[in-house]
């Protein structure tokens, strides 16, 4: 055991800092160990590979995203349609802000999403579950019609790919993105609404 | 003037063949001239650059796509909702088939789309116009409600990005893509329908 306590959280923070400065290709276990002034064995004790390290960084960021989104999704003062709109709009805004402010970290996230990594698939599962629960509430309230809430939730996520899928990040700084996303969300809500 | 007639069409065909075999990075004006057994000046007389050559190849492919889509969009035997569904479904199927059968050529198309080239922007303009015209027909028939058909047409194209935007090509061979696209199209049609 080493003298100073080296916990996973400290390693993740150091990795995030290196990813931010040097990008996903140039952040190895050795780089992280050097940054912390420890042996690479100390890092390997917590993270078996470079891939595990970058997954941990993105997982921590997505945990924050999920915490914020859960608050919006569970704001029961809003009717289901407005909760759905708020959830989607908040999700877009968090992605756009991250892609703009922290492009190297976002590039790491893009790689993980393209690889359909566990961390990325878990996140999609969370989003589908949040959307599904609001759709079920909307059906119960008589506001929405949806025979298969899980399928519809996935369709909502697919129909908004252009505004949250990291593969589209290069388009997000267009001045039209916000208005275009609002038009898609309105079209989706009209599709869900009971007639 | 050269002895043999060298027209633009012949050059475009030779370029397409080279793109198919070697991809967008390795197809230069010189390669095309060598393939045709002519001087590179003969090619430059028609196409000023490698970029102009690959644009011409993609423009020819997209001309064929547009011809097929226009036939579907103008099949007035179908009610507007079914014409819209047929137009979207045909557009997806043509993209998926091209990405699968001709990946190098499709990679060229992806580059042009990402660059927002004239050829790609013209194509988006065509798609929006086709969708808009069907939406206007649907409103006239009392089937659809849409206050701004052009804006809604663009929203329909944005909401289906995952199924036609070349940036998503790597996801299209998933066995779920067809069912997922059908769910999104149904959600969109529900959104357009008059209640």
From TrEMBL, chains A, B:
DNA-binding region: 28-47
Xref: InterPro entries: DNA-bd_HTH_TetR-type_CS, Homeodomain-like_sf, HTH-type_TetR-like_transc_reg, HTH_TetR, Tet_transcr_reg_TetR-rel_C_sf, TetR_C_27
Lineage, top ranks: Bacteria, Bacillati, Actinomycetota, Actinomycetes, Mycobacteriales
Keyword flag Membrane: no
Keyword Transmembrane helix: no
PROSITE patterns reported for this sequence: HTH_TETR_1, HTH_TETR_2
Protein's name in the database: TetR family transcriptional regulator
Alphabetically ordered keywords of this record: DNA-binding, Transcription, Transcription regulation
Gene3D superfamilies to which the protein is assigned, alphabetical: Tetracycline Repressor, domain 2 (1.10.357.10)
């Amino acid at each position: 055991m080493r003298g100073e306590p080296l916990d996973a959280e400290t390693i993740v923070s150091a990795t995030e800092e290196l990813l931010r400065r040097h990008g996903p290709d140039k952040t190895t276990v050795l780089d992280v160990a050097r940054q912390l002034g420890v042996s690479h064995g100390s890092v390997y004790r917590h993270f078996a590979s470079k891939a595990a390290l970058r997954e941990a960084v993105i997982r921590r960021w997505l945990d924050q995203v999920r915490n914020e989104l859960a608050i919006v999704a569970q704001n029961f003062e809003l009717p289901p349609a407005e909760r759905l709109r708020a959830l989607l709009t908040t999700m877009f805004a968090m992605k756009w802000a991250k892609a703009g402010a922290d492009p190297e970290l976002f590039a790491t996230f893009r790689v993980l999403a393209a690889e359909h990594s566990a961390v990325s698939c878990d996140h999609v599962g969370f989003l589908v579950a949040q959307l599904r629960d609001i759709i079920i509430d909307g059906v119960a309230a008589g506001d929405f019609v949806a025979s298969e809430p899980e399928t519809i939730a996935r369709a909502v996520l697919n129909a908004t790919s252009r505004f949250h899928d990291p593969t589209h990040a290069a388009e997000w700084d267009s001045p039209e993105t916000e208005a275009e996303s609002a038009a898609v969300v309105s079209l989706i809500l009209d599709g869900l609404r009971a007639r």
